[in-house]
Specification:
Number of strands: 16
Structural class: mainly beta
Helix content: under 10%
Order of helices and strands: EEEEEEEEEEEEEEEE
Radius of gyration: 16 Å
Largest sheet: 8 strands, antiparallel
Shape: globular
Protein name: Putative large, multifunctional secreted protein
GO molecular function, one term: hydrolase activity
Oligomer: single chain
Pfam family, one: 3keto-disac_hyd
């Protein structure tokens, strides 16, 4: 069985971080990314702001690995907080939620403030963890019909969202324009969360009859 961490990217994948530099990312204002790269990973620099990938995508398989610092005296949303926004619009929470029996919409792996994970797959802090995200972008249809975005998420190889419906962007979204491609956005929440092995594989569009009123 393939390990969910140190996972090798497929040949067609676009590599966003290979352990060396942040050339695939910018700061929110378009200037060079100012997070710290060391030991094959990169780390949030508090106050440097969020990062945006130069790559914009619609349907995609996204793999990333992260490691939360050990903050034993922190509580709640102060426990090693960060996040990854798909298309810059839908935040998947990153947090030290290890040991929480029933995770909520603010815990690790949640679609932030909207959908709680099916189970808590969070590992202890200082351990490398993985997200594998299968994302299907929102689709417009004639008139007032649309197909909302959806995602399936494996956290450390465990399914924690199964074709979850993303009806609206989460708080802090870059924009509300859900029918256009968007970047991967990594959040600076002030904590030294680390990232590595980030890649994106574009997926072919597929048909669907799940139309809903706009």
């Amino acid at each position: 069985m393939t390990s969910p961490v140190d996972r090798t990217a497929p040949p067609a994948a676009e590599i966003l971080f290979d352990g060396h530099d942040l050339r695939a990312f910018t700061s929110l204002d378009g200037t060079p990314a100012r997070w710290k790269v060391h030991d094959g990973a990169f780390e949030v620099v508090s106050g440097a702001g969020d990062l945006l990938s130069r790559v914009h995508a619609d349907d995609a398989l996204i793999h990333l690995e992260f490691r939360c610092p050990h903050l034993p005296h922190a509580r709640g949303q102060a426990r090693a907080n960060s996040g990854v926004y798909i298309q810059g619009r839908y935040e998947i929470q990153i947090l030290d939620s290890h040991g929480i029996a029933i995770p909520g919409t603010g815990d690790c792996g949640a679609v932030y403030d909207q959908i709680a994970p099916l189970t808590n797959a969070t590992l202890p802090p200082l351990t490398w963890q993985s997200y594998d995200i299968v994302f299907r972008a929102a689709r417009p249809h004639p008139g007032d019909l649309f197909e909302p975005a959806r995602l399936t998420l494996l956290h450390n190889g465990v399914v924690i969202h199964n074709n979850a419906v993303l009806r609206t962007p989460t708080a802090g979204a870059l924009d509300p324009h859900v029918f256009t491609p968007g970047p991967l956005r990594l959040q600076d929440h002030g904590d030294p969360v680390q990232f590595r092995n980030i890649w994106l594989l574009r997926l072919p569009p597929s048909g669907s009859d799940r139309y809903e009123p706009g």
